[in-house]
Amino acid sequence: MSGPVAPDGGNLVNGVVPLEARASLRQRAGRLPGLPLDARSRADLLLLATGAYSPLSGFMGEADYRRVVTEMRLASGHPWSLPITLSVNGEQGSALRAGREVALPGEGGDPLGILEVAEVYPYDREEEAREVFRTADPAHPGVAALYRQGEWLVGGRVTLLDDPCDPPGPFLRYPAETRRAIQERGWQTVVGFQTRNPVHRAHEYLQKCALEMVDGLLLHPLVGETKEDDIPAPVRLACYQVLLEGYYPKDRVLLGLLPAAMRYAGPREAVFHALVRKNYGCTHFIVGRDHAGVGNYYGSYDAHHIFAAFGPGEMGIIPIFFEHAFYCRRCGGMATAKTCPHGQAEHVALSGTRVREMLARVELPPPEYTRPEVAQVLIQWASEEGYQRYAI
């Protein structure tokens, strides 16, 4: 795959069945035993098959899993920070055999993909929690999801039975199409930005600072499963759209989607997000304060420090670390502790929790927090004018 940067592992994995083979494979999948998937596993299947998780071509086997949990590396030694696994209960696990195929149903029950079973193996959920999430507290949403999993993991290559880009959607979703768009624009350096929250002025400040250093910006919000109290993905995308219309150079920005589920793994997820964005064609990746964090489980800059676990150039993508940004009334603009001499009394920096509380009261977020156009999108949604008007 040509482009400004090679995919992770050198080649973009492609597990999507060619058009001419789909009908026969669907018929075959219909005769196979099925293995139910939750929303996160369906998202992982999609991202494995389309190359977003390159060099992985399927759910992890035991050797990869154990080394990722303890060392943030695949069995080959390649950097990788989060387990991409498929769990099954005891009854399901005992029915699976290496070398056999099982159908992976979509949300409606029809076969979405096929898994070639390579191995079924036990694992320690508490060990994974402590290593990956740095806590075994079941109140942590990622740990809670882990504890709900079955007691066995099944590894093997996956095949996707439908072209995820047919019909094409309004946003770039998968690595191959995103990389083509980057190529068409002639960008050699591209910075990726990850968020699961509505865009605000601190985001905009970081993005534009990074855009001064590179050819293009990939705004890449995560639109898979998140916590129940997170603002829905369609609303967040509407915020991005109104912001892009008025405040960004159109020839230097691409808006794409990452249809992955949030793990809320903090520092480890920051590394994961960077590696995935490399597969989408990014050469650089913005890592902000408390990236992918939740509650008080991680230090403000743990997501910066974790990148020191990898050698210079080893990840193949350059992290750009930013301080916490805020609006300073005295400065009359956005700043960080590195650039602003004024005290906290002059700073406006609202947390996601505080903004959700304001929206629950149908209270407009202040202009120091977000652009008025973005605030209007949020308040329209909060006032129940019509969630259905926002569509991905």
Describe the structure.
This protein has 392 residues and is an alpha/beta fold. It has 2 domains: 19-160, Roll (Sulfate adenylyltransferase), CATH 3.10.400; 175-389, Rossmann fold (3-Layer(aba) Sandwich). Helices cover 32% and strands 15% of the residues. The chain contains 13 helices and 13 strands. It has helices spanning 22-30, 39-49, 62-71, 90-95, 125-133, 141-147, 175-184, 201-211, 233-247, 267-279, 302-305, 352-360, 372-382, and strands spanning 58-59, 86-88, 101-105, 111-122, 152-160, 190-193, 216-219, 253-255, 284-287, 318-321, 325-328, 333-336, 347-348. The strands form 3 sheets. Strands 1, 2, 3, 4 and 5 form a 5-stranded antiparallel sheet that branches. α9 packs antiparallel against α13 (372-382). The two termini are 28 Å apart. Mean pLDDT is 91; it is low at 386-392.
CATH architectural grouping of the largest domain = 3-Layer(aba) Sandwich
Major sheet description: 5 strands, antiparallel
- Helix content range: 25-40%
Instruction: State the end-to-end CA separation.
Output: 28 Å
Question: What is the β-strand count?
Answer: 13
Q: So what's the overall shape? A: globular
Number of domains: 2
CATH topology of the largest domain: Rossmann fold
State the fourth-level CATH superfamily of the largest domain: HUPs
Global Rg: 21 Å
Number of helices: 13
Q: How do the helices and strands follow one another from N- to C-terminus?
A: HHEHEHEEHHEHEHEHEHEHEEEEHH
What does the average pLDDT come to?
Answer: 91
Structural class: alpha/beta
**Estimated share of beta-strand residues:** 15-25%
Which ranges are low-confidence, i.e. pLDDT below 50, for 5 or more consecutive residues? 386-392
CATH class designation of the largest domain: Alpha Beta
